[in-house]
Amino acid sequence: MPLALLALAIGAFGIGTTEFVVMGLLPEVADEFSVSVPAAGWLTTGYALGVFGGAPLLTALGTRVPRKRMLMGLMGLFVIGNVISALAPAFGILLVGRIVASFAHGAFFGIGAVVAAGLVAKDKRAGAIAMMFTGLTVANVVGAPGGTLVGQTVGWRVTFLAVAAIGVVGLAGVARLVPDLPREPHASPDQRKPSAGTDLRRELAALLHPQVLLAMAMTVLGFGGVFAALTYIAPMMTDVAGYADGSVTWLLALFGLGMVGGNLVGGRFADRALMPLLYVALSSLTATLALFTVTAHSKPGAAVSIFLVGFFGFATVPPLQKRVLDQAAAAPTLASAVNVGAFNLGNALAAWLGGLAISAGLGYTAPNWIGAALAASGLALAVLAAALERRAGARGPGAAAGPRTVRVAGSPVRTEGGGVRAEGGAVRAEGGAVRAVDGGVRAGPGASADVPAAAAPPPATPPTAADAAARPR
To answer: In sequence order, what DSSP letters do the residues of 63-121 get, joined into one string?
Structure first.
């Protein structure tokens, strides 16, 4: 794997630490600012909403900015947000700091995923994305538990200052190790040529593809189930399972170990069997969260459930991100960033619903069955997306892939739903693909090709009597 992935992983580690560490510090923050635990939960909800809103905004604004420079700027914004959080004199200012830091989150992971995929061969993209997201998962083994321990012993403000320092290291790593890649590393030279407004239009068109939107909805609901339980893990473990306050640190580490394992498994198999992997991960996550409502009353059962929620939850991350990249292959940057925002929209939705359930007096285990319902909804959408894809495939690859363009003798020819129109009979459609008659050039779904004039054969003429006599019998 390229060394540049290490720099992306360091940035992901810092972002993952600041995202998850606050969950172990909710009681301390709530005490200092004299707010309830559900109210303090807005530090999670507000962060997640900031990711969801900031991802498309900053990515769209940065469509004309080189990706390396954009990643550096995002890490700088992340550092500023954590410094604001560390120095916040009131709960509202702390929330503002969280939102500022969150704006860097979605765009960094979205652009970083595209950069990571561009560093390796096409059949290794999911593994490269998983390698970058390893920084996020390791943050839950080391960063979040360590930050929780620091916050409980020295003060939560020190935790945010330490996270800001990690951000500085990530910024230096990106500047040093990440190369300056073309806008679309796997595109043809013609596709890489910039033109005013074209990049954003292409990105928006790819974002609005029905299968891309379905994949993002899967992300919101499927992964949202994880945060329904995780947001209120500290009071759930101390008030329901009976763990001491200091145990939350190693329980978060256990969750992080599950995340690491699930992320690696997801990255390994997403390139081989993406949809089957999603079925298994989402159905297992649904069952685990449903059982967590019961196992939370037992220390061993709670510990096992926390690990499994992390494992099955993060086994969905590489396949969901890769599916969005595959479905928006012509212009993946905005779709990738918005999908990272979709993860956090699910987090915000789950944290909000969990807080409502707790405030209604349903207890600290209520978020678990809410999470199970969300994960089951994500599974249903995955089944629907696959069914629609099969139906489109039955009508021919062209129906699923949408419009494509092939150039014949310098003139563009558009294909719509598997049909093609060409002057002089130079091109014909075969099962949704576009192929030069002489077999020299093919343009598959989403591709384009230049067919030289010489490749177009002359119009067919009826066989002569001599031809007929010479034909083998």
So the answer is: TTS-HHHHHHHHHHHHHHHHHHHHH-SSHHHHHHHHHHHHHHHHHHHHHHHHHHHHTS-
Regarding pTM above 0.70, the answer is no
Element containing residue 269 per DSSP (H, E): helix 247-270
For residue 386, the SS3 value is helix
Rounded to whole angstroms, how far apart are CA atoms 99 and 166? 18
Distance of CA 258 to the CA centre of its chain: 18
Could you give the CA distance from residue 215 to residue 46 in angstroms, rounded to a whole number?
23
Average pLDDT per consecutive 10 residues, the chain (473 residues; last block may be shorter): 84 89 84 85 82 78 80 93 94 93 85 81 75 80 85 91 94 88 49 50 74 86 85 86 82 85 84 86 93 91 92 88 76 74 81 85 88 92 88 57 44 45 45 45 45 46 49 49
Rounded Cα gap, residues 318 and 314, in angstroms: 8
Burial label, 168 (beta-carbon count in 10 A; 0-12, 13-18, 19+): middle
Using an 8 Å Cβ cutoff, are 333 and 203 in contact? yes
Nearest to 227 by CA among 324, 353, 121, 107: 353
SS3 state at 266: helix
